Write the structure tokens for this entry.
Amino acid sequence: MEIDFNDLIRDAKTLNATHAAIAKVKNILFNEDFRKQCEQNICGSYNKNWMCPPAFGPIRDAKERALRFQQGLLIQSVHELKSSFDWKGMMAAALDHTEIFRNILDSMKKNYSFEEILPLNAGPCTYCEKCAFLDGEICRFPDKAVSSVEANGIDVMALEKACGIPYYNGKNTVSYVGLILFNVAS
Ligand code: SF4
């Protein structure tokens, strides 16, 4: 079945993405510096999650995996904050974003037939309240586990620019991004 990519964009916006666009994988810039931010433990998830470094594996493998895809649906959700120091608001926005991201992913899987799909969100995989990694156990839901654009070393700002999506959405807002790579059957 042929897929009209405009339908994917429309569905994403219906499911509360503020912005959505089709990104060509050939426009993705991979940069070790983003991966280094994971290693510097900026988000506090380094070595605590199966989908984060070091358990996630080397950036070389991540890049190879991503380059198997032709395109992806880039989504961005924008959230209002009380101020630029509204840490609680940022955390709540991250949860809202992940709900939006997972709803869009579920809708894509349910309504379209892709040959392959690779979802990348923002930050660690939060499908389980506590990642099995912390208990020394294997991932409990491998089909639900999602890595991040950062762990894959993707330059999000450059990709947004290439897709015509604004990186900055105004004072007292926070924006989160997800990228769902897919291949359609030829
Ligand atoms: S699905 Fe659960 S166990 Fe697997 S990576 Fe995500 S949080 Fe960890």
In short: Residues 52 and 85 are 26 Å apart (CA to CA). The beta strands are 19-24, 71-80, 114-121, 147-148, 173-184. Residues 87-111 form the longest helix (25 residues).
